[in-house]
Each structure stands twice: as structure tokens, then as C-alpha cells.
Amino acid sequence: MRRRRGINLFPGSAWEHTAPEALPHGTTRKDYVRQAEPARQRVPRRSLGTRTESAMIIKYVLPLIALALLVFAVQQVVGTREPQQDVQPPIQPSRSPYENTVAGAGIVEAQTENIEVGATMPGLVVEVYVKVHDKVHAGAPLFKLDDRQLKADLEVRKAAVQAERAELMRLENQPRREQLPSLEAALREAEADMASADDELRRAQRLNARGPGVVTEQEIVSRRQAHNMAQARAAKAKADLELMRAGAWQYDKDVAAAAVKQAQAQVDSVAEEIKRTTITALVESEVLQVNVHPGEFVGTPHSEPLIVLGNVKQLHVRVDVDEHDIPRFVPGAPAQAVLKGDSSIKYPLRFVRVEPYVIPKRSLTGQNTERVDTRVLQAIYELEPTGQALYVGQQVEVYIDARKGRHGKNVE
Question: What are the b/e assignments for 232-242, b being 16+ CB within 10 Å?
Fold first, then answer.
């Protein structure tokens, strides 16, 4: 049997009620509608005026509230922000004193350039003789390496020299007086044996001449051979005696003398190595930096200079001229250096020389337009003293007049 669906008792009204498919027992549909009518009358109906007010609130009031909040937020941001002031740079940038300028970065160096001292051989540092700011003269010791092994080798080489000299003296003093009598006696003995063998040979020959069968042929041959052997021994003894009397061969003496010189050269080589363990200054200068201490092991090559020397009585500035500015660069033109950190301090420069080899740029200034593949021409200028202290390695900004030269040619 097909089930009946619920019936909407109040269609199109604000309060709708659907009657169940099955009414309670003993209740008719009219009674059920009569019971639901009071509940329908209690539900308030929405009027047309209420709908219009809601639409106006959404259309006008909410945008005004949002605009007011936006204005309030802007006022808060503007009110809490600190007023912007014109900030002056702590250091005024330097300016070129010339109308046409070739500018470059310069670095202060010693007049002798920076002399980076290293060890001539790997070894253990046992003593350092200098410290920073010390004035040293040419030949002054700087530091010393361990030389115990070299000193032991030197004693061995000296002993070898003594042995070679003794051998040379032995050859030069030949023959020994004690050796001649024994050789002379050996010669006389050999001559006596030869005379005896000669006598026996003659007697055997005379007996054989008297008649056959007295002396056999074999005996005669044996005595003849004994005579020849005795004669040879006598000749050898005589030659030995003459050789001893003549002394050592001159070529043997020359070989022994060369061996002495070779051994002495080895001694001198080890002694020179011992001297090289003490590192000395080659020019009069000042100690600028010390990077070595006793107990450290130094090798070759070095990762950094062990001691830096330089003559700082007169300072130089090495200026890097960009390869694009080389056509405008005039050697000998007026130039001026400005100290970094204080543009009011200026140093007049005097041209010294140009190193005629364009090299890759090594010192970087940190500017955004700077390229690491740039090549530069290095010019050397002499700093004229102004009373302001400068230090080796300090960077300065250099401005060179690009219009005309001071001397018209390079000044060496």
C-alpha cells in the first residue's frame, strides 16, 4: 500500500506546519488544524519596513564605519612615526682637487717595499731576537732555527777530512825508511838463490858433457827451470826495491789531494748550512711585523711572512691605475693622496716611477662597480711629510691630474 506524505497545513505563511501522515487515534484532521492554529498566531511576521532598514544599514552604515576605522588607522600610523630628518654622513667623501682626474686606490708601503722574511730551510725556531718597532742594520740576526743535527754532521765531515789528509801525507812521505832494508834483504836472497841455481845448472851440464848416462835429461831440464825461476824472483825483488825507493805515484797523490778538497768542501757546506739557520736582515730597516715564536716549526714555502721589514724613514704609495684610465694617465703629473676616514687630511705626492707591467687587480675597494677581472698599472709615489702619522699598509685615495705632467717625463 502506498504511504501518504505529510500535508502542509499553512502554505505560504511565515509559520508552516506539516501534519503527520498518521493522526493520533480518535483525532480528525479538522481537530488537528484547530489545535495548531494558536501556535501559528504566536509567530511574528516580518514587515516590509524592517527589511528596508536592514538593507540601508548594509548599504550605507557599514561602509561608513569601515572608512572611519581606516582613517583612524592612518592617523595612528602617522602619529606614531618619527619625523624624518636629514642625516649628514659621519665622514665627508673626498673630492678631487683637479678638473680632470685619474683616481686610484693607493696603499702605503716602505721605501724599500715590504720585505717579507722567511726561513731558508724547514726547522724548529729556537730563538727570536727582534720585536716590532726594532731598528735593525744589515746583518743583524732576526731569529734562529735548531742546528743540532747540522753540528753533528759537521763533526763527521771534519773527521773525514782528517782521514783524507792522513792518506795524502802517507803517500807524500813514501818510501818508509823501515821498508827499504827488508826489500834490500829480499833482493839479496833472490840473487843468492839465482846464483845457486846457476851453479847447479852448470855442474849438471859439465857432467852430461863427460859421457852419456851420467846425468839424465830430466834432471838437466829441472835445474834449468829452477835457474829461470830464481832469476825471475831476483828481478821481482829488484823491481820492488826500486818502486819503494821511487815513492808514491804522482797521480795517486793527486787523487788523495782531490779527496781532501772534497771532504773539506763538505765541511764548508755543512758550516754554511749552520750559518743559514740564523736568519739575518739584509738591509737597514725597521721591524714591522713578527709572526714567528720560539718552539714553532716553520716550513718552506710559508703561508705568511715570518717577519716583515721595511725602511719607513720615507714612505711610498703604490697606486693602482685602472686599465681604462691608462690612456689618460700622465707620469709625473701632480698628484694628491687623501686619507681614508678624514678627507681633510691631504698628502702631496711626488712621482717616483711606473712599474711597466699591467697586473690583475689585487686590492678591492668594495664598490659595486668594481670588477675583479680588472687589470691595473701600478705607479709609485713618494709621500711628502705633513706631520700626520701614516702606517705601512694603510689605504689612501689618490687623485692624479690628467691634464699635464709636472716634469713631462718619467722620473726614476
Answer: ebbeebbebbe
- The structure's pTM equals 0.59
- What is the DSSP-derived secondary structure letter of residue 60? I
Q: How far is residue 94's CA from residue 91's CA, in Å, rounded to a whole number?
A: 9
User: For residue 47, how many other CB atoms are within 10 A of its CB?
Assistant: 8
| DSSP for 242-282, written as a single string | HHHHH-S-HHHHHHHHHHHHHHHHHHHHHHHHHHHTEEE-S
Distance from C-alpha of 291 to C-alpha of 304, rounded to nearest angstrom: 8
Over the stretch 207-253, which tens digit does the pLDDT of each residue have?
877 777 677 888 888 888 998 999 999 999 989 888 888 888 889 99
Cell triple for 95? 673630492
pLDDT at 23: 56
List the grid coordinates of 410: 718619467
Place of cell 826495491: 241
Reported for 86-92, long-range contacts at CB under 8 A and 24+ positions apart, including other chains, are: 91/341, 91/342, 91/343, 92/343, 92/344
Q: How many residues does the chain have?
A: 412
373: number of CA atoms within 13 Å, CB side?
A: 0
